Structure formats: structure tokens, C-alpha cells
Amino acid sequence: MPLIPTLSQLERSCGILFYSTTGKGIGGKIRVKPEDFIVEEITPEGKIVNESLKSLNRGRGPYTLAVLKKKSRDLLPTISLLQKLLSAKVSFAGIKDRRAVTYQLISINRPLAEPIRMNNLEVWAVGTSKWEIRPGELKGNRFTITIRSLDSENISKEALSGLNWLPGYFGHQRFGTTRPNTHKVGKYIVRGDFESAVREFLAEPYEGEPRQIFSFRQNLKTTWDLKAALSSIPPLLLYEREVIRLLISSAGYLPSLNSLPKPLIRLFVNAYQSYLFNLALSERWSKYGLNYVDLGDTVSILDNSLNPSRTIKVTHSNLEKLRKLVDSKKAVLLMPVPGSDLCVEGINYEIYSEILEREKISPGDFSNTMGLEFRGTMRPASFCPTSLEMSDPSEDELNPGKTKVTIKFTLSRGFYATVLLRELMKPEDPKSAGF
């Protein structure tokens, strides 16, 4: 059966090229208010992180385990704020959505005597640990999402039946929807084209931005008058202000980029790695499908939470057995997220070689990128939501004459709710739909 191409230019620019479902989308909007998008982390112990979590013990140790609840806040600036406030290191397992109410476990390398409550932010201690929380140290996330502005005739619970074993795309927020260029900045950084990276970061306007910021970037792109830009820069553009200040002082493009926090540099390059993965996944899917396994591939057995566990290289001796395991959904095909250690063969060699040649990069370009190394990893080609349910339609109190539904589901770590939602809603303009 031929694949259904995406309706969205934004998705195409992020390598998200196809749908796995054939039905018409129900439409609608998400994130009309933050409480419409609730994310609750699931710890490795299987505990749901939310208001009810009061106790979690990982042994007597120097680290405090705490719940971080935030509303409409970016995670990295929030973590930086907490570190300054507490004069301590704060660690977390995964980045959560900004336009949402999110709950996640953090670790602090000192005691937390009193809960923290401030604007759209709460932190409270739940226990101690012998070790700090590490990236990826979670089982998954539980989502409760309200979709509004629906026409009742388009809503059917049968639409949920096709939402299983979806493509393992990196989702929209990995690249940005208001300003979808995170991966573009990362591409220029990987290529060593620091001037283009700076110009993309500072001066490429996107229609979804606030008008003042759009006009500022547009004017800077046209004139490249840095002194005038510094005097007129919108207050919210704190990172851009520092980059411009250094450029004016003749620091150069690379030193100016180096003024950005290392986590932000990593975010740019990781987004580019994600873009390359999405392209490769789309290419392989279009030619072979998401479940086809061949010699040279890597497969992982799935645990009870549908997370990859034991990886196995596909050889002549185990090919048929692994194909049966993947077909029966007891295992999943893994595909490389490109990095400095990318090593591919078979089908993936064909696919990744073409993409890297087209992008004019090589794996070695990730090995010393602004003093950082970006190794690759393996990611499932598909994923399956669990505990998926939809409420009965009801009146949308924020949009008279329209209907709303609430859907709940759980995803394994590393997967995106928006990748499921795009299959259900099929928005032509993900940004206006709240993605």
C-alpha cells in the first residue's frame, strides 16, 4: 500500500514525510490552555510523577529526589534558575514540553528543606538517592491531552484503532514550530560554517514569531547593522543580545557562538541528528516498510514497557528468527541516529550514505564540534502507545458550537505525543493546531 504523504510543509522540513494511518484526521487544536496538555513522567520503578508522589527512596545518599512541576516554562532555563537559587546541581531524565503542565523527577546534590513555589513552578522533595538522575533514566510518560475546536461529525473512537506501531519520528518540538530552525543551526555548526549558524540563529525571521521579534530579525537580515540591532533588540532575546555584543567587539562567529550555553549548542546539534534520523526513517519506510529486517540490521527485544532491552545484530543464522520476533511485535527494528561513531551496512548503508552525501557531511564532522563530541545512538523505527483511550465528546466551553475530547495514553521513553496526535488530527498547519 502506498504511503500517505504529510499535508504539512513544516513536517516536510523536519523529515516527517508520511502518515501510517489512512483515515481523515479529526482536526482540532491542542494546548489552547496549558492544562489541556498534561505530562506525567514514569520513573524506572514504575511510579507516576504527579501531585500524589510524596515518597521515593533510592538509598541514603547525598542527592535529594524531588518533583518538578512546571506550567508553560522551558525546561533548561528552569533548571538554570533552580541551580542559581539553590547553589546546587540539578539533574533530570528528560526534557518535557514547554506549553504544558508537566511533572518530572529531578535530583539536587544537597538537601531541600522547604518546597519551592514561584511563578508557574513548584518543587518538593520526595526522598534521597545514592546517585544523581541521568538522562534517559525513566520508563516513559503518561499524557492527558484535550483536543478542542472539533466538529462533532468528524469524531469517532474508531480513529484510535489505527494508532498502534507508529513511525518512531522525532516530533515537532525537537525542531520548533514557532521558529522551526533548531536543526538548521545545528547543520551549520556540524559543517563548521559558523557564520551561517550565527545568521540563522540571529536573523532568519519566521512567520510564527511575535511581530516585534519577526521585524527585528527581518531588519537585521536585510541590513546586518549590528550596532543598530543591539539598541533595538527585544528584551526576550537574551542569548541573541550576547551574540551580537560579541560580534560588535570583533570576537568572531565561533567565539560568539561559544557564548551560548553548552546545553543549547547540544540542542542544536541533537536536533540536526534527529532530522537526519527522520529522513532516514522516511526513506527506509518508503522502500522497505517499518518492520522489514535484513542482514546487517540491529534488532532489540522489547521489555514489558515496550522499551528496547537486549540488542541483537542480524546475521545469516538468526535472520528468520528475528524477522518473526519483529512481525509478532516482541522485538523492534533499530535505526541509527547519526553521530561520530556511525557504522552502517546493508540497507542502512545505502540510505545513510545518500543522505550524508546530500547533506555534505561525514560522521567525523560530529567528533569535534565546538569542542564537543556527538556520538550516535540507536532508536526504534516504530513505537506503540499503551492505555490509549478517548473520552466521549462534550461541549467545548472555550469555543461555542464546537466539541472537545480528551485522550489519554502512555508512551515509552523518547517518543513524542505529537507523533501520535498528528496521525489522529492530520493538521495541515501544525503550529496553528497547537503543535
Draw up the topology in text.
Elements: E1 4-5, H1 9-13, E2 18-19, E3 37-42, E4 63-71, H2 75-86, E5 90-92, E6 101-108, E7 116-118, E8 121-129, E9 140-150, E10 166-167, H3 182-191, H4 194-203, H5 211-223, H6 226-232, H7 238-248, H8 253-258, H9 262-288, E11 298-302, E12 308-313, H10 319-327, E13 331-337, H11 346-359, E14 377-380, E15 382-383, E16 386-390, E17 394-395, E18 403-412, H12 417-425
Parallel strand pairs: 3-6
Antiparallel strand pairs: 1-2, 3-9, 4-6, 4-8, 5-6, 7-8, 9-18, 10-15, 11-12, 11-13, 13-14, 16-18, 17-18
Describe the protein.
- Strand 17 (394-395) and strand 18 form a beta hairpin.
- The two termini are 28 Å apart.
- It is globular and about 65 Å long.
- Among the domains are: 4-35 and 141-164 and 385-425, no CATH class; 44-138, 2-Layer Sandwich (Alpha-Beta Plaits), CATH 3.30.70.3160; 280-383, Pseudouridine synthase.
- The protein is an alpha+beta fold.
- 31% of the residues lie in helices and 22% in strands.
- The strands form 4 sheets. Strands 3, 4, 5, 6, 7, 8, 9, 16, 17 and 18 form a 10-stranded mixed β-sheet that branches.
List keywords for this structure.
single chain; 435 residues; alpha+beta; Alpha-Beta Plaits; Pseudouridine synthase; 10-stranded mixed β-sheet; 4-stranded antiparallel β-sheet; 12 helices; 18 strands; 22% strand
Write a brief structural summary:
With 435 residues, the chain is α+β, with helices and mostly antiparallel strands. The chain has helices at 9-13, 75-86, 182-191, 194-203, 211-223, 226-232, 238-248, 253-258, 262-288, 319-327, 346-359, 417-425; strands at residues 4-5, 18-19, 37-42, 63-71, 90-92, 101-108, 116-118, 121-129, 140-150, 166-167, 298-302, 308-313, 331-337, 377-380, 382-383, 386-390, 394-395, 403-412.
